[in-house]
Design goal:
Elements lengths: L15 H8 L3 E10 L4 E9 L7 E6 L9 H14 L10 E7 L4 E7 L1 H4 L2 E2 L8 H16 L20 H12 L2 H8 L2 H4 L8 H15 L4 E4 L8 E3 L5 E3 L5 E4 H12 L2 H21 L7 H20 L8 H17 L2 H6 L2
Antiparallel strand pairs: 1-2, 2-3, 3-5, 4-5, 6-8, 7-10, 8-9
Helix pairs in contact: 4-9, 4-10, 5-8, 8-11, 9-10, 9-11, 10-11, 11-12
């Protein structure tokens, strides 16, 4: 990996020579097949190499956007996801060919298999899934969480995941720093704000809630989370197995990930009718992995509280990162779930 530094920060710097050092083979030709801009840039590369084990197309992800140098922590986290977590995680994820971070250039790059070429089915945020499919993904997430649940040494200095930050703390710091009243009102007055209940429009309430969730999150079962299991980061593999990508691994409450996935993945009516059963299904899956969680009634209280975290993510998610239609759809789903589960009352009681 050291031979591949410095990492390119311009797309034009993705040359045959650099790719040869990153992939450990001779790349005699590279062509940019397409570019997908977003939170990170996804670039499809068409390659000619001297290694038959390297596919003819690969996906390179990195920070090539105007905002990228300000988000180096996200690039570093994704590098950790592929280099340090994926090899030991039970989650089905794309095969990784290179993962490196360059602190001096504030750049992280991952080169992975081209899932389109393999024929997987990508999920889309505006196409909610069935409760049965969500239950299957919760089973896989339970296996992933079980790796680290009850193992604080994994996150202590010199632990195998000592780099993993606290999921809620990181977002809380962002909120305190970025969300001035004018910025906040810009979000509230947008389409996504109109899709949410006015009960959740107060900036003081929002910041107070993040602070409470930060403190509450340290008192409940925590593990290494995938960190971003919304539908845009999921796929169905050719054998029907659920797949996950674009992980942002953090230490966090397992019920925060459950609430985030269940609410984001289901139509509002399906979520309302099935959420308690799905939480119970996750609880049973964790028990099958040898972990006893709190009673279901207590898990549902945690679920209700952490819905506010999912709401927070999408209410203030810049349109540079996700299209406004997607931010609006998710904000509406979380707002509805918060009303159904009395998140206001639960947060007030913390």
């Amino acid at each position: 990996m050291a031979n591949a530094r410095p990492l390119p920060v311009e797309i034009g710097d993705i040359t045959e020579a650099w790719l040869s050092s990153a992939l450990g083979c001779t790349v005699s030709s590279v062509r940019i097949a397409d570019v997908n801009n977003g939170t990170c840039t996804k670039i499809r590369l068409a390659l000619v190499t001297d290694n038959p084990a390297v596919p003819v197309t690969l996906i390179l992800k990195g920070g090539f956007e105007p905002h990228s140098r300000m988000m180096d922590y996200m690039h570093a986290n994704e590098v950790h996801a592929y280099a340090d977590v994926a090899p030991m995680s039970p989650l089905r994820q794309p095969r990784c060919f290179f993962a490196g971070f360059d602190a001096e250039r504030q750049q992280g790059i991952v080169i992975m298999e081209d899932l389109v070429a393999r024929g997987v089915t990508f999920l889309h945020p505006q196409q909610p899934r069935s409760p049965e499919e969500v239950a299957q993904r919760l089973e896989r997430l339970a296996k992933h969480h079980a790796m680290t649940l009850g193992r604080p040494g994994d996150f202590a200095p010199q632990g195998r995941f000592d780099w993993a930050g606290d999921m809620i703390d990181g977002f809380y710091r962002y909120g305190e720093t970025i969300l001035t009243p004018p910025v906040w009102h810009g979000f509230v007055e947008s389409a996504r704000g109109a899709a949410a209940s006015v009960r959740f429009h107060g900036l003081d309430w929002f910041l107070d809630t993040l602070g409470k969730l930060s403190r509450f999150g340290k008192t409940v079962p925590r593990a290494l989370l995938h960190g971003d299991t919304h539908l845009g980061n999921l796929y169905i593999d050719t054998d029907g197995e659920p797949g996950f990508f674009d992980s942002q691994p953090h230490l966090g409450p397992v019920m925060a990930e459950v609430a985030y996935h269940v609410t984001g993945a289901l139509d509002m009516a399906d979520r309302r009718a099935n959420e308690r059963e799905l939480v119970a299904h996750y609880q049973a899956a964790m028990e099958a992995e040898g972990h006893t969680l709190p009673p279901l009634s207590e898990l549902m209280q945690q679920y209700a509280a952490f819905l506010a975290f999912g709401y927070a993510i999408f209410l203030v998610n810049a349109s540079d990162f996700q299209p406004e239609a997607i931010n609006t759809a998710y904000t509406a789903r979380f707002s509805c779930a918060m009303l159904d589960n009395d998140t206001l009352g639960m947060i007030a009681a913390l």
